[in-house]
Specification:
Length: about 500
């Protein structure tokens, strides 16, 4: 497996959690798993083992030193490629002044080539090379090349590419293609060409033996022009090789019964600890410590994908009327677009019941998940979404837009019966967000017994990485069969 992010080593969003947890689940199931990522500046070499190996791209670039560390106690190994000039910077993809490093195609191309070189040096023939998102989308192309060239290390290797977010495709000037070390004709033949530019994800989606994305609904949505970001035609063409496999929750990291970051531990049989968690959250955010007011929270990358315009847009966003007209508290943890970070601090200074923290803070994310009553996720699109899965697990009822993985994991409240695990709306408008938050708050004040039952029900919903790993294994088998020209067995 190759990835630009693996939790807890480097994380910009859910990709890191998903790759880390899936890798561990596969390794625990007895598979021989090696994960390769860059050794970024923030990853302390002192915590790693120097393997003594050096890997290269094979065309005159400097080599990388290879460090390793066990993947928790799963039996798998994480390898980190250390090359100061490429990865020795703060930031995974960029920094505030340069949000996408100019040399990202080369940085991540080296990662893929280095991973293949590592297999050769370890004399290890993988059955499957699994890549994630645009940064490692070159992997399927390289595997196809190695196979076509009859490379002894990879002649039986199949490639799988998982889409965690189609909104990011790795689109760069066509001139950068020359620096990837591929024959010039591959630009068109392997599908890099996209309106005259180089699109890394498109090449991966063209060349991989099998494709997946992170929820069944998103797998359907990306085949439509509304959600396809220009690649829906390609995805329809590859429809038979594309599946949606829902992410899970890593209970080692996200479990209110064992969470070391939260004020009191609790589970579905006894939620009394949640009250202490709510008080702790109110204290940390400087909100009045009051158990008798509903607390709505959000943890998010502040990006258009997350519905931040409709929620925080100056002049028209729903947050202002929600906080000024409803009896609730609102806490936000997020980082991302500068206008939104600014707006969050303006709202914090003007509204007594609204408080925001800007930045990435893993501990605080746990404090928020445990302490809030409701978790708001008005996403424009959401491939899977992990935050709402964590919320369900913490008895914090999600308020979400019906899209992608949110549609697959949150069950809408039925006022007549009290059924449901959250509150779901369809249209992404400030009005719908306002109405749905209002509805949740209404239920909190008037249907307390429903809310209590929903919390317990939500905590009982199981989103298991072992189940996901089983589905990935079936996908791997299909990819292997396709790569080796064997018949593909259905129903596996
Ligand atoms: P995405 O990957 O699109 O950002 P997900 O819901 O899949 O969305 O995953 C988001 C992950 O990132 C969650 O683990 C969430 O807790 C974490 N996260 C997002 N923003 C922050 C932040 N500011 N501080 C800490 N964790 C954050
Ligand atoms: C992406 C998506 C998110 C998904 C995560 C992990 O960042 O935006 O919906 O949960 O990847 O697969």
């Amino acid at each position: 497996m190759v990835s630009s992010e693996v939790a807890p080593w480097a994380k910009a969003g859910g990709l890191a959690d998903a790759v880390g947890a899936l890798a561990e689940a596969l390794a625990r199931a007895g598979h021989e798993l090696k994960v390769v990522m860059p050794r970024y500046y923030r990853v302390d070499r002192g915590a790693l083992e120097d393997t003594g190996l050096r890997v290269g791209s094979g065309f005159g670039e400097p080599d990388a030193t290879v460090y390793s560390t066990p993947l928790e106690d799963s039996g798998g190994t994480l390898y980190l490629l250390d090359r100061e000039d490429l990865y020795g910077r703060d930031g995974i993809y960029g920094v505030p002044g340069e949000t996408d490093f100019r040399d990202n195609p080369m940085r991540f191309a080296f990662l893929c080539r280095g991973a293949l070189d590592l297999c050769r040096q370890l004399d290890w023939e993988p059955d499957v090379a699994h890549a994630h998102d645009w940064p490692t989308a070159l992997m399927p192309v390289l595997v196809a090349e190695a196979r076509a060239a009859g490379s002894p290390s990879f002649h039986k290797t199949a490639s799988v590419l998982s889409i965690h977010n189609l909104g990011y495709q790795g689109v760069y000037p066509a001139a950068d293609f020359a620096r990837l070390g591929l024959a010039p004709d591959r630009f068109d033949q392997a599908g890099f060409e996209h309106y005259g530019r180089m699109n890394l994800l498109k090449a991966g989606l063209t060349m991989a033996d099998a494709l997946s994305t992170v929820s069944p609904t998103y797998a359907r949505e990306i085949q439509t022009s509304d959600f396809g970001f220009g690649l829906d035609g390609l995805l329809r063409w590859r429809s038979a090789d594309l599946v949606g496999i829902l992410n899970g929750v890593d209970l080692g990291d996200w479990n209110p019964a064992t969470d070391p970051y939260i004020a009191a531990r609790y589970d579905a049989t006894d939620l009394t600890g949640k009250a202490a968690c709510k008080a702790a959250l109110q204290r940390e955010f400087g909100l009045p410590e009051n158990p008798d007011v509903p607390l709505v929270a959000m943890i998010s990358r502040l990006a258009d994908q997350k519905g931040i315009g409709e929620l925080f847009g100056p002049m028209y966003g729903a947050a202002w009327p929600i906080c000024s007209e409803m009896d609730l508290q609102f806490a936000v943890l997020g980082s991302g677009e500068a206008w939104c970070e600014r707006e969050l601090s303006i709202l914090s200074s003007r509204l007594p019941n609204f408080k925001a923290r800007v930045g990435m803070d893993e501990r605080l994310a746990h404090v928020v998940e445990a302490g809030a009553d409701f978790f708001l996720m008005p996403s424009r699109y959401e491939p899977c979404g992990l935050s709402q899965l964590y919320s369900l697990r913490y008895g914090t009822l999600p308020v979400v837009r019906r899209t992608g993985g949110l549609a697959d994991t949150v069950e809408n409240y039925e006022q007549a019966t009290g059924e449901g695990t959250g509150f779901v709306f369809d249209d992404l408008t400030p009005r719908s967000i306002y109405d749905t938050v209002g509805w949740a708050v209404w239920a909190w004040y008037n249907k307390g017994e429903h809310i209590d039952a929903m919390r317990k029900r939500a905590m009982g919903r199981v989103f298991s990485w072992d189940r996901a790993a089983t589905e990935y294994l079936a996908l791997y088998r299909r990819a292997i069969a396709r790569a080796r020209g064997e018949p593909i067995e259905e129903n596996e």
